[in-house]
Design goal:
Blueprint: H1 14-33, E1 40-45, E2 51-56, H2 57-64, H3 66-80, H4 91-108, H5 111-116, H6 126-145, H7 160-164, H8 166-193, H9 199-223
Antiparallel strand pairs: 1-2
Helix pairs in contact: 1-3, 1-4, 3-4, 4-6, 6-8, 8-9
Length: about 230
């Protein structure tokens, strides 16, 4: 159907229905097996893959609601963004991000059960490989598509200079894509190396260092120092 002048294209949010259903079914499955779970469940692991935090079954169920809450939030975000019209220009990238994050957190919600039923033993590298590998893959995929993201206040490298100037925004997102890929590769490599006390420093350092560089780069582009 041809879009007439002065009208806005309605963004297709039907994919969120599928994600919401998957998240609701996921939560229902957690509720169904909750009576068979011990009263205290692991909810946090350190960099060595060792459990260092426990919570009640109710606390775990509240965490299991997170994917559904995220889907609802993802539905609202584009409609309240001051530059909401730009989402049409990178809608496929946004949809991919939403789908990837939702699936990742649905999978992550089962880690407590895996440990509770001894399907994964404490001290194994499973949680380290799963979290760092999953996040690393998401960073790499997202990094490849960051140059497609257009100005908005929610998604992307939202430096004040990028939001103020379209050219600076485009250059900043391209650099952000490179940084994301580097961070993603770093996460996967650290996950493959196994549990290590150095993980927080290496991964944290890459994230903080990359963020600082993106802001510096964006400012230099805006000032015209980098062309």
């Amino acid at each position: 159907m041809t879009q007439t002048p002065g009208t806005k294209k309605k963004l297709d949010n039907r994919y969120l229905i599928g994600l919401a259903i998957a998240s609701a079914v996921n939560f229902a499955a957690h509720v169904a097996i909750s009576p068979f779970m011990p009263d205290q469940l692991p909810i946090h692991w350190n960099a060595a893959g060792q459990i260092d935090g426990y919570g009640s079954k109710l606390a775990v169920l509240l965490l299991d609601l997170l994917p559904l809450v995220m889907v609802l939030l993802f539905r609202v975000v584009p409609s309240i963004d001051p530059k909401r019209d730009n989402y049409e220009k990178f809608w496929r990238v946004w949809k991919g991000f939403v789908v990837g994050m939702t699936i990742f957190f649905i999978a992550l919600s089962w880690t407590s059960e895996l440990y509770a039923f001894n399907l994964v033993t404490e001290g194994s590298n499973f949680i380290t490989i799963f979290v760092l590998g999953g996040l690393g893959l998401l960073f790499i995929i997202l990094g490849n598509y960051m140059p497609c993201v257009r100005q908005n206040y929610t998604f992307g490298a939202k430096t004040p200079w990028a939001l103020d100037d379209e050219r600076t925004w485009q250059r900043t997102q391209r650099m952000c894509g490179i940084v994301f890929i580097i961070i993603g590769v770093t996460m996967i490599l650290m996950g493959m190396l196994g549990a290590s006390s150095q993980i927080p420093f290496v991964v944290g350092g890459s994230v903080i260092g990359g963020t600082v560089w993106i802001y510096v780069y964006s400012y230099l582009v805006f000032r015209g120092t980098l062309r």
